[in-house]
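Action item from last week, closing it out:
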Amino acid sequence: MPTDSPLSMTALTHAVLGSTFLISVAFGALMHRTQFCTMGSVADIVNFGDWTRMRMWILAIGVATLGTTWLAASGQIDLHQSIYTTPDLLWLSALVGGLLFGIGMVLASGCGSKTLVRLGSGSLKALVVFVMLAIGAYATLRGITAEPRVYLLDRVSVHLAGAQDLPSLLARHTPLSARAWLLLLGDGVGLGLSLWALWKRDGRDARLLLGGAGIGALVVGLWWVSGHLGFVAEDPQTLAAVYVGSATNHMESFTFVSPLASTLNWLLLYSDASNVLNIGIVSVFGVIAGSALHALATRRFRWEGFAGVEDTANHMVGGLLMGIGGVTALGCTVGQGITGVSTLSPTSWLALASIIAGGVIGVKYQAWRLDQMA
């Protein structure tokens, strides 16, 4: 997008952040309306054999993959400018971090996005999880737990000759172009997952359709805002390409681990002139606001506190595990499980599988703990 002055860059920043906020408000309201929850979907399967909410999540992945690959194939965004398609395939970090995150989300009664939704609807438990997740994430980005992440886990990786997304990988070893593979795989994976989600009667429930298709579409919408609306090929100040509103100068969509750390940092250091709003921080505030608005409008806003010492400890430990694991795995159930997977990144699929495995372990642990207390 062309710009010719600092004033136009300021206006563009406002447009990007304003659009992000509106999309995030819709995201929070939709999650609250449809009870979209990855942890809940795993628990439903393990405890009751009910796949309804899992079908909602799978539909969201399918829709996000279809929309994201279409945007990329049409040249509106460049998937190689996201953090998910770098040449380094951090497989061990994805597996270990995903496992920690999955266990943590069960102990904390929900993942990062669900924590924001619960916070918006009156949960003081979620406020504690928010703070603990943010502390764990910040420590793993640049604090004490960053050391083992960087020097033990991230070093066990596979360095590829180019981008790690599947279309690029296949294009380097077949006659077909990366764009052709992008269309084939994007349509195949997106349609395949969507059809599976909708195949049975319970998959065509109105709430499931609204939650799955809506969340997937909003992920695509934020990709467009960040990667197309917010892209400037030549910043008038630096003459370099820039993604306006991004904390890392990469194209981005929804993720809820590192942005929570950034939000806590922004609140604590508000008067620091270098501490500015970005897409991640604005999305956090937007999801909380969307959930709060829907909860108030439907009279479902309820104050919620801890039941006791063990409940408090579980949520605090769960928040820390999500912060540490989410940064290590480069994302959460939304950040890797929907946003990352929509780029057709192998690392994202590894992280997704590990998060689900961690969730199963967490649910099994909770069942065992209840038996011990009976």
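Closing note: Residues 151 and 274 are 29 Å apart (CA to CA).
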